[in-house]
Amino acid sequence: MKSTRREFLATAGAGAAAMLTGCKKPRPRFSGSILGPALAAGHRMRDGSFPPPTETIEAGVAIVGGGIAGLAAAHQLDKKGARDFLLLELERDPGGNAACGRNAVSAYPWGAHYVPLPNDEATEVLALFEELGITRGRDANGAPIYHEEYLCADPMERLFDAGRWQEGLLPQLGIGPDDRRQYERFFAEMETFRQTLGADGRHAFAIPLDESSRDEALLALDQATMAAWMTKRGFTSKPLRWHVDYCCRDDYGAGMENISAWAGVHYFAARRGRAANADHDAVVTWPEGNGWLARRLAEPLGQRVRGGCVVFNLEQNNSGVAVDFFDLARQRSVRLRARGVVCAAPRFVAQRIVRGLAPVTGLEYSPWMVANVTLALLPAGRGAPLAWDNVVRGSASLGYVVATHQNLHPVPHETVLTHYWPLDASAPPEERQRALTRTHADWCDLIVADLARVHPGIDAHIRNLDVWLWGHGMVRPVPGFIWGETRQRMQPPHGAIVFAHSDMSGISIFEEAFTRGTRAADSLLALIS
Amino acid sequence: MTERGLRLLLLASVFTIATCGLIYELIAGTIASYLLGDSVLQFSTVIGVYLFAMGIGSWLSRYVEKNLLGVFIQVEFLIALFGGSAAAVLFGLFAHVSSFRVLLYAIVLLIGTLVGLEIPLLLRILKDRLQFKDLISKVFTFDYIGALLASLLFPLVLVPHFGLARSGFLFGILNGGVGLVALWALWDQVPRARLLRINGVAVLALLACGFVFSERIVSWSEAAAFGEDVIFSKSTPYQRITLTRHADDLRLYLNGNLQFSARDEYRYHEALVHPGLARLPHARRVLVLGGGDGLAVREILRYPHLESVTLVDLDPAMTRLFSTQEVLTRLNHSAFASSKVHVVNADAFTWLKDNREMFDFIVADFPDPSNFSIGKLYTTAFYQRARTALAQEGAMVIQCTSPFVAPKSFWCIDETLRACGLVTEPYHAYVPSFGEWGFILASPRALGGPWRLPPGLRFLEEKNVASLREFPPDMARVPTEVNRLNNQALVRYFEAEWARYTHQ
Description:
The structure holds 2 protein chains of 2 kinds.
Chain A (H helix, E strand, L loop, with lengths): L4 H17 L12 E2 L3 H9 L8 E9 L3 H12 L5 E4 L11 E3 L4 E3 L5 E2 L6 H9 L3 E4 L5 E3 L10 E5 L2 E4 L9 H19 L20 H4 L6 H7 L5 H15 L8 H9 L13 E2 L6 H8 L6 E2 L2 E9 L2 E8 L4 E12 L3 H7 L11 E11 L13 E4 L6 E4 L12 E8 L5 H10 L2 H13 L9 E14 L9 H5 L7 E3 L10 H19 L1
Parallel strand pairs in A: 1-20, 2-3, 2-15, 3-12, 9-17, 15-21
Antiparallel strand pairs in A: 4-5, 6-11, 7-8, 9-10, 13-14, 14-15, 16-19, 16-20, 17-18, 18-19
Chain B lengths: L2 H34 L2 H22 L7 H26 L6 H27 L5 H54 L7 H25 L2 H7 L2 E7 L4 E7 L2 E6 L2 E5 L3 H13 L7 E6 L4 H6 L7 E5 L3 H9 L1 H4 L11 E4 L3 H7 L4 E7 L6 H4 L4 H9 L1 E10 L7 H13 L3 E9 L3 E9 L21 H4 L20 H15 L1
Parallel strand pairs in B: 5-6, 5-8, 6-7, 8-9
Antiparallel strand pairs in B: 1-2, 2-3, 3-4, 9-11, 10-11
């Protein structure tokens, strides 16, 4: 990217200052560390080096994995009166991708941080929203009335492009008439998709995704990449392609060259959520992101959620399922006998621990780095004011989200920025390896360099910088995955083990995980009663 | 140097120090009337004390027996230091000392005494160099010419171009310069000349720094921007508070936006409080959100039947300023000293969330919705929270910017209140320093009732209240969106409407 005069001056000024002080600027070092997930325990599970169980406990149902799918299953069992269950989670706290943290300044997310307005067909999610007070009844048209403080406050998004911040994430500065025509045509096509019903009468693109039409003409989109589809449709505009690529990376951790056109279009054409008091593109969010939802789901479960438990063996037997786990706190293995299991772990884990489960191949997961940067200053910049989501065109990261944005206190003097970075420069295994070799200082350098492009001198205001590495952050909807054989093979239960995870949908979003967890609990109850 | 040259030099210094002496006096008098109000009294007492102190100085001069020259030069440096920095010190400490008067008169006494030493010492230094009649005639001639020059320079050149603090530093430098020149000319006759020179140079350096950096002490550019004299300016973590004084007017600005002018603020505050409270004879408990200047509370306290007034303002610096500074407590009738008034320094939104008390009347007197942070205090989310603190028979009043300049903004607030299920009663009043200004009364049930206005009002009376509710076509209702946290429609209207107005 061409550097602007302003950036040049800033750099030149900094250089001059360094020369004046007569010494090289010391490398910025901040307090903080590289956090979770519990990699060591996870890798130990892969190697299978746990002692045999020395203790046996019992429960009606075991839930393996405390991400949103597992918490949804527990929530549903509880609602159905099947209260005799135990949820085993590898991490200390449940939440999975909805993990969150907290410091003196703010709570902040470690992963998923918002939910768009759920579609009418996402009945489970809508029921949860009503239960948690996110919605309070409906208006005369049946549109849910949202709790205003949970709707993402305005201004929602801004983009740094051409030397200044602008509102929204679609580049608007310095674009030509052809770009604008392509914008219009692209969004018109997406709107058509949004309203299209397949030959089977279903919505072309739905959430939950399995409610989508099976119309062959639509499923054919799954065969090509989003990039190829864009080219075929004549969408050559650079700013438009940047925007679409950004959106794919944001939701799938991989750009449009890597994901299927069906998934790419789904991003733009599947949202038909309604609100009595917000636009259709509104989202709900909290300072701790979806950690708020995870906490609200986990709180009523009390002791029935056990963190620090590495499940390493799931075995069918005559009376049910034996769930062997290693209790990290007590350093011993325990066997949990259950009549049935909701396995809410990602598939690459499930197929290691479930005895006799035929492995599927071709699953790809996107690695991610998420950092939380505690700042003693609100970042500003020329142009549009600080928004919730702040994106920089041309950056390898996705920009940052302001954790204190939903804070109603008008003048926070400090804030926490959650910096998202999908590691998609090369193939996931390579990226995972590279990520693990980097030290905290290496990450600090990368993150500060990225932030300093738009906020020169920001390092002077950083109070703490924590880094979280997600080796297998989310399933990647590569061409052929969503409507191909692999995903189909992931669906059926294995004896009394029912599976629930967003990777079975091919896209990692709250609605998929929650719906799958809820439905898995229902089908398990039907199976074992 | 020749004897003649020396005489001329000493007489020139009489002229300079006379000018400086009067300038310090004028600065002190002006600051006193700015910061304490009542300019006739302040000028008169400052001049009196200053002249009296000069008398003390003259009397003290008899105790100087040896080394007249050395003492004179030292006195010049001291006057330069105290006189030159007086304005900046007074401005800087205004908000930090409990008794500003004591500080002011202490400084006036000190400077006056030192200035009083000058002429007697000079007379004695020159007495062997001139005949007595020449001596008296020349010294006093230059003294009075200097005074004339000072009295012309001060209002015509110094205050408009440099402001008070910088003028002080400038004349301090001249004063110190007299000392240094005298030292240079009489180097051989002054004992410990080197030490004196160090003193002099240090004082001059300090004053020069003060002159250069006095923008920070009292923002000179700010004074230029306001077109008024800035008498207090402070950046708190929440805002920049600026008080200005122009003739008999006192104005408060927050972040550069006018909050009130002492000349007509009663119109604003009477219109804010009474249309609601005068119709709530049963009201006992009142809540004021914002309004850290205590002026709305002053109006509220006109109702003796009220039991308590709770004021929630974000900025402790504001409420402290308006409860301690005499010029301000005179304006708000020491509202914060009333035993009925409880001041809470908290954010109104957060405070309302934890609040369990009910109020009969709520005043939302926030700054205009010029940014997203303040815009939150005008949303459905905020009004819904405020409503939970409002008694069923009570009412809430909101200051709503100008319905003339910003009709969409004004009616957007009305639309927002109605979206919360409140009955609204929009009205407006003319406040000269603001222009046509808007307010909205909102209540769970329509307010009826006769008006029982308290005595002593200067703007509202029963027969003119009906006209407040009439909106001529240029301020008539326009359709708008409802202002919500997730659209901040109001901030966008406000920005567009005021930008158009101010760019005309």
